[in-house]
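Example 515.
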Amino acid sequence: MTERRAHGPDDPHPVLTRRRFLGLGAGGAAATAGAVAAVRLGAGPASVAVTPASRAVAVTEAARDTTGRTVRASLRAAPSRIDLGAGQVVDTWAYHGQVPGPEIRLTRGDTLEVALQNDLAEQTAVHWHGLAIRNDMDGVPGVTAPSVAAGGGFAYRFVVPDSGTYWYHSHSGLQLDRGLYGPLLVDEPGEPVSADVDVTLMLDDWLDGTGRTPDEVLEDLRRRGMAMSGMSGTMGTAAASGAGPLPSALGADTGDVDYPTYLINGRSNNDPRTVRVAPSQRVRLRLVNAGADTAFRFAVGGHRLTVTHADGFPVVPVDCDTLLVGMGERYDAILTARDGAFPMVSYAEGKGGTALAVLRSASGAAPSAGALPTELSGRLLSYTDLTPREGTALTGRTPDTVLVARLGMGASGYQWLINGRPYDRHQPLDVVAGQRVRLDLRNETMMFHPMHLHGHTFALLAPTGPGTRKDTVIVPPMRTVSVELDSDNPGQWLLHCHNAYHQAGGMETVLSYRT
Ligand code: C2O
Ligand code: CU
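Predicted structure in complex with copper (II) ion:
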């Protein structure tokens, strides 16, 4: 095991300096990569960052399994007027004038080519959440790519390495808390069809166009310090006290923002979407939490759920009544439809609001807007119920390096930190390609943080070794979650809290491949 190399506290921007240096001499650096690697042993400061443009990235790309097929899509980000149902119309920003944005669907090994047109009045970038793609297409302004200027465009092009339920969203500022997100589904070639109906449900917390923008909310949070931002100047209401009809599984403080509306597939519970099925059909639900500050507890009235995938990767099927989906997390679950009309409810954990969709296999009264099926307080899925399906587990291996990310809070103001620093003074977590890396996520705050790593699907560390594969994991208040990963996708990769406000408040760092 090697020690994590730390940059000196007297040298706040060493990586930037080295990146600039590398940019000037990229060709030479690639040619002498072997020599640099040899020098690195026992000489940390001589190492250089693997940039998105490095040869190591191209080499990894050349080795990918591809079908040779290219799937093309286009995304136009623009101000849009969206109907949330029951006459609630909001002005927001969306892809193709719809929330969620258009579904992108392809097969593992296909090349995805997306033409982004930015018709917003500010810069933007698209991130392909959960996919371990090439570093230079990851869509993180300032880390892997320049942002796309207002009026400009960009052609994303990458091979899709894994099947499962993924999503895309803007990775600029708080644009995710507007309507800039959509589903990205990847089929497994030759996978036997296991469901009659395949439905994606994107869960969201919504405030844009209802009086304040996400940017104004952040300003408000900065003014208040750590007090919660309510909608009408009221603070410390529902979320701050862990209110709501159900006990919170995430502690008393589950959010910083009190949302007026929650959505499933762009609809509030006053005018829900209906999924029509035939009785006894098997329905595959793909749940995606696209919210910015809300974990959702999901259940379907009158039905049990069999969870088959977590964050895109297959698990040994396991039954539950309800499951908690953190921001950025996804679950696939199968149910067998009963005869009737049933509420599919996402409940804002610790906050108390709900969004609704209807599962209908027969005529009959629709569920009421505020329906709270008893399944919501039934058997709750936990991470320890999840076992990777054969062939998807990481093999047991002693870690070559252990990285620690302490999740903290600033002493004053609205500041969220990793290892004592906000993102603008971050200290990268260094790895070298070919390592087994253990990452300890240590939550030293009273709020949960759904931590997301770009470019990798890590394994949750179980007592028996590496367990379920995920790319986003809820770290409960004052707890440590350990994950393991293989450093097999060279580049610079963001590690951050998927609470968009915590992220904007600084809770981000970079997993930095070095040679
Ligand atoms: Cu879903 Cu860094 O993102
Ligand atoms: Cu957080």
